[in-house]
Structure formats: C-alpha cells, structure tokens
Amino acid sequence: MSQTLALHGGPKTVTATLPPHHRWGREELARLTAMVDQPSLFYSKGPQCGALLEEFRKTYPLRWAFPTSSGTAALHVAVAALQLPPGSEIITSPITDMGSVIGILYQQLVPTFADIDPHTYNLDPAAVRRAITPKTRAIMAVHLAGAPSDNAALAALAREHNLILIEDCAQSWGAQFRGQPVGLAGHIACYSFNEFKHVSCGDGGIVATNDERFGPTLAKWGDKFYDRNPTADARNPATLAPNYRMSEPQAAVAAAQLGKLPAIIAAHIRVGSRLLARLQQAALPGVALPAIDPRDTHTFWFCLLRLVPAAFRVSRDEFCAALVAEGATASPGYIPKPVYRYPVFQNHNFFAGSWPLRTAGLTAVDYRQVSCPVAEAILADSISLRIHPAMTDEHVDQTADAFAKVARHFAK
Ligand SMILES: *Cc1c(COP(=O)(O)O)cnc(C)c1O
C-alpha cells in the first residue's frame, strides 16, 4: 500500500522549512570595516588579499597562490600558465561548469572529454587513459558536487604520460581524497567563491600551485602580465594575459568566509551524510546512491542520485515533480546535457562562428562526434537534492521520507 502522493492531493511529507540563514555576518563586516580605512583597494600588497591567502593556506598549503575575479578566471590562469602550443589537448569531464573549458578555448587549446564513473560522477581513469592522444598535454579533473576524484589514479596517469594535472575544486571546498584536501595532488589547483559555492564573496576564485615551473609567473597570468614586484620595469609585458585580479572588498569577504570553512563544511557533511544514511536504510529498489569511499571526505555541494529507469512507472522528470510536490527541494539531473552537446560546441562557434584551430588544421576534433554514454545516462536519470547547511535533521529526514514515498509509489 502506498500513501497518496502530494501530487495527487495527499499530505505533503516535507513540512519543515529552512530557518533564517545568514551566510555573511560579523566576521565579514569586521574585515570590510577595517578595509575602509585602507588607503588602497588594490590586490597587490593588499591586507585583505593577504589575509585571504593566509586563510587559504591553512587548508591548502600551496606556495604560490593568486586570488582571481572568478573560478573561471582561476582556471584560465592555470591553463595559460602551462604555455602549451595551440591545438594541444586537455582532457576533462563532460559534466562540469562552462568555467572549466572557457580558458582552454581562449588559449587556443582543445578540451577533450573522457567519460565518468557511473556512481562517483567523476572522471573514470580508464576512460581518461583511452582519451590520451599524441596531442594531450594535461588532464583537468573536476571534483563534482563535493566528491573527490580518484586523485591517486589520475596523478599516476599524469606521471606516466608526462601530463599536467589541473584540479578544478570549485564544487569541492574541504573535500579530501584519502585524507588529502583536493587540490594538493595535481600540479595546479583552482577554486571558486561564486554565489553558489560552499563559501562565497559574490564572485571570486583562487589559483594555486607548488610547482616551480608555474608558480613564479602565476600572478602575471592574471594581471596583464605586469610585474607588481618589479626589479626593472613594471609594465613591459612579455606576453598576452587578461586582467583577472580580485579586489580588496571581494578578498575581505572571501577571507572571512574561509575562516568559517570548517564549520560550513561540517554542516554540509552533516546534512548530506544523514540524507544518504536515511535513503540507505529505506533500501529503495531502483535507486542508486552516490558511491563514496569511506576513506574519502565528500562535502556535499549537492547530492546527486540515480534512478534505474526500468524500475519505475514514470519518467525521471515526473518522479522529480512528485518529489517537489512533497515539499522536497529537488531538480532533475544537474546540467541539462554534457558540455560537448551545448550549441557552442556542436557548432564549433568559439570565435564569431568559427574555430580558427580547425580552420588552420591544428585540430581535427569534431564535437559532433563526441559521445560519453555514462555521462549522458547520468544526466538523463539522476535527481539532484539540495544540501543546505541550515537544514535541520527533521528537514533532512522528511526529505528522505519524501523520496522513499515517491519511489515506492512509482515502483513497478
Ligand atoms: C562554479 C564552477 C566553475 C566556475 O566558477 P565561477 O566562479 O562561476 O567562474 C568552474 N568549474 C566548476 C566545476 C564549477 O562548479
């Protein structure tokens, strides 16, 4: 016997609501207040940017770090710093934010896509190996939704093939692979402070490295290739680089946010692990929970789970609509389609309707031929549940109950 769904006029399962939640408070205000007395809001030698890097290094002890205007900017700086010849390929995940690939394309490089693991949703090292060509120079691992990628396998693969490993940690503040925070296994790490990430200053990012090949010029790659510590002339750029600087007001907020990172992460983990434990207990046939290795730390930016389509009488979208009617904060999938299916890729519309790399014969990649079946299946059959740090245990339990109610109702 299944209960009447809220969708069909039955009682709503989720009655709890989010309590008032202030992401920004006196810590941010204290920094901003101190900042107003500064003579300058410029990043270089700015006390707020200095404080931000100090907070950052408590978790990520990386020698060179540059605060940027966004996570996309951080990734662009990372890619630019590699100084790869045009047409070089960087393998990344088909389920990610456009920010992962924007810098690759602007540097006249070629993002290529390897398929992902069906239950961690991160790059499958075996698929990455198959995607390596003579033009491959780097791997960009995306730690999706708070889940660390298999950094050991990816770093080993990078070593074996002499590739650079970039870690896109935008969604995975605080996540750990085998006890090591993400961002420390590869050659360059990138983070985001955009509105929707665990910690935010509106928009911002950090790019950081311990690698002596890239560290010393990292700041220049985000600052017009100007030298802010000039021994000779400050403005004499040797090459082309954009302005991706973070300013002091952003850094003031970001520094205060990073001071609270452990508490914010703990709240996400409390909510995410309780939700998964409840769903596990419910033992719902046809529902696949995300795979999390007990040695790792998943920081639940959101929680993506999959439905086995054949196990239910309704489509994923109908299932999700019933869940929303129960009062759960859920949405179908994550991004609507893999990145390579976006029109910008399908039409190779990178620069005014064309792709100079292809026209010049520097790449033969054709995104209309790309297919990553696992990624496509995940986006078609998954449901994303919101993880909010202010959710009470009752709210979490009701969300799991709503999921179980809908799953049992629609089970074949
Ligand atoms: C958010 C995000 C980015 C881009 O960050 P912005 O700060 O929005 O530019 C890049 N990669 C991933 C995986 C992201 O989630």
Structural summary, described in words:
The protein is α/β, with parallel strands linked by helices. The chain is built from 14 helices and 13 strands. The strands form three sheets. A seven-stranded mixed sheet has the order 1-9-8-5-4-2-3, with helices on both faces. A four-stranded antiparallel sheet has the order 10-11-13-12. Helix 1 packs antiparallel against helix 8, helix 2 runs parallel beside helix 8 and helix 3 runs parallel beside helix 4. It is globular. It binds pyridoxal-5'-phosphate (PLP). The site of pyridoxal-5'-phosphate has 15 residues, from helix 3 and helix 4.
**For the residues shown, what is the average pLDDT?**
97
Structural class: alpha/beta
Largest sheet: 7 strands, mixed
CATH topology of the domain at 26-260: Aspartate Aminotransferase, domain 2
The separation of the N and C termini measures: 13 Å
Strand content bin: 5-15%
Query: What is the overall number of helices?
Result: 14
Per CATH, the superfamily of the domain at 26-260 is Type I PLP-dependent aspartate aminotransferase-like (Major domain)
The tally of beta strands, per DSSP, is 13
Q: What is the top-level CATH class of the domain at 26-260?
A: Alpha Beta
The shape, in one word, is globular
Helix content: 25-40%
Instruction: Kindly report the spatial arrangement of strands forming the biggest sheet.
Output: 1-9-8-5-4-2-3
